[in-house]
Amino acid sequence: MIASLPADVLSAFLVFCRIGACFMVLPGMSSARVSPRIRLLASLAVAVVISGLIDAPLQLALVAPAASVLLRLIVGEILIGLFFGLVARFYLLALEFIITGVGMSIGYGGMLGAMVDGFEMQSALTAFMSLSALLVLFTLDFHHVVIIALLGSYDVMPFDTLPDIRLLLVDLTDVLRESFLIALRLGSPFIGFAIIVNLGVGLLNKLSVQIPIYFISLPFVLCIGLVIMYFAVPYMLSLFGQGFTEVFTAR
Question: What whole-number distance in Å separates Cα of residue 223 and Cα of residue 35?
């Protein structure tokens, strides 16, 4: 039934498969708190715009296609869309990972709660930083970067070619490496702070065994950690927003 549709409708449908798969895992758009109807309408709107910019020769391969060919094209488009969405998703997950470690290092990672962007249980510090980072990305129009990359992907990943899974996995591995290197630089001051403070508290505890230095030091470690976080958050979010374009456009 789908194969009997006109070529322009089939091309728009394949574009929708790529755009919809990307929006399905894209940070912000894939949130469970965003209505599925809004995600569907946004994907349709972007797909209609992009389908009008694609070259007409690409529609020649969609004239009365076989069912197996159409199924292969749909699977390929979904895989490509998932790839571009996962690049942005991995970048945000790297920040959530390092902020979780930061919260544990300053003693603020014990109380878990629901995230604003999802329903996973995370600490209040991780939820605050992830939401702030997502707002920064939207402020910097990261969704425009994603849409431009999807439009440019038709030059290297057209309709009639099935994407190379091995190359996609290699690119995702490179994204993970670069994202976690950026996240490690963002959290390095707190990692150094945790090493120095825990070493000093351990030495004091050895010098005065009768006094529970570790439990006494918890409020002071938390206070100093939150003060450092207060001054470091603007720089962390700024560097995080600048690094997204570099990581995403490098694909």
Answer: 39
Q: How many domains does the chain have?
A: 1
Domain ranges, residue 87: 2-249
CA atoms within 13 A on the CB side of 248: 29
Burial class (CB in 10 A: 0-12, 13-18, 19+), 115: buried
Structure letter (DSSP) for residue 31:
-
Q: In Å, what is the CA distance from 177 to each residue of 169, 190, 237?
A: 12, 20, 19
Contacts of 56 (CB under 8 A, 6+ apart): none
Output the tens digit of pLDDT for each of the chain's 251 residues.
Answer: 555 566 677 777 888 888 988 888 888 888 777 888 888 888 888 888 887 777 555 666 666 666 777 788 888 888 888 998 888 888 888 888 888 888 888 877 666 666 666 667 777 888 888 888 888 888 888 888 888 888 888 877 777 777 888 888 888 888 888 888 888 888 888 888 888 888 888 787 777 767 777 777 777 888 888 888 888 888 888 888 888 887 776 55
Rounded to two decimals, the pTM is: 0.82
